[in-house]
Design goal:
Elements (H helix, E strand, L loop, with lengths): L1 H22 L6 E7 L4 H16 L4 E7 L5 H12 L5 E5 L5 E3 L1 H8 L2 E4 L4 E3 L13 H21 L4 H9 L3 E3 H6 L5 E2 L3 H8 L3 E4 L2 E4 L8
Parallel strand pairs: 1-2, 2-3, 3-5, 4-6, 5-8
Antiparallel strand pairs: 6-7, 9-10
Helix pairs in contact: 2-3, 3-4, 5-6
């Protein structure tokens, strides 16, 4: 009986050694979403479905690489709502060098749980632009502008970012470089590469709806 118990304990130890690496115990998992181009229904579906997938597979966080000149306000609003309601942190990253988060892209970046930019990128110029052949009159444009201002301020305040800059980005179409954005309190990091960003993110505290979590990204696996 004693021999059987020893063999049983040995088997349990063996299974633990084999299964722990297989289960990825102690290693964070993340999903990368990359979007380049104009914001529209396609990008809305891509980002929304990506967030759903990341939540379904139990990922710890999302890395959203963004390079956009802007696009449809309605699609942008859907993306922002999805990010704000995400069960896991969405880390926005304007990347690579030369990329931008302009117009609708600025709203999206401000809504991410953690925001970062690569050197040589910019964000802003968020004044609404009328689409289509029929242009709205000045009264309607004023309404669109005020609506956009209220929305971007609410996003900035929710994420603890610079609401004054956010308003000016809409009303005056101002734009800022990566380093300026960091100094102005619009983003959290300036990182030259995704690898460098993951190192910077390690230990970052993120406020989620259910409470504060600490990102473990140094050895995270995609």
């Amino acid at each position: 009986m004693l021999r059987v118990m020893k063999l049983y304990r040995t088997l349990l130890v063996f299974l633990a050694i084999v299964l722990v690496p297989a289960l990825g115990f102690g290693t964070s998992k993340y999903v990368v979403l990359e979007f380049e181009g104009a914001i529209g229904p396609v990008s809305d579906r891509y980002i929304s479905n990506g967030i759903d997938k990341a939540e379904d597979i139990g990922a710890d966080f999302i890395l959203l690489k963004l390079d956009t000149p802007g696009g449809l306000m309605e699609s942008m609003r859907k993306i922002v709502k999805k990010i704000m309601a995400s069960e896991i942190p969405v880390n926005g990253y304007v990347y690579p060098v030369g990329a931008r988060a302009a117009s609708a892209g600025a709203f999206i970046m401000l809504s991410t749980h953690v925001a970062a930019m690569s050197p040589g990128t910019n964000m802003g110029a968020a004044h609404p632009v009328a689409m289509g052949e029929k242009q709205p009159d000045s009264v309607m444009m004023g309404k669109l502008e005020n609506d956009a201002v209220a929305f971007i301020i609410s996003i900035a305040e929710a994420r603890g970012r610079n609401a004054e800059w956010a308003e000016r980005a809409v009303r005056e179409s101002i734009s800022s470089s990566a380093n300026e954005s960091l100094e102005l309190g619009l983003i959290d990091y300036v990182a030259s590469s995704p690898e460098e960003l993951l190192e910077m993110l390690d230990g970052h505290e993120v406020e989620m709806e259910e409470g504060e979590i600490v990102l473990e990204t140094a050895e995270a696996e995609e």
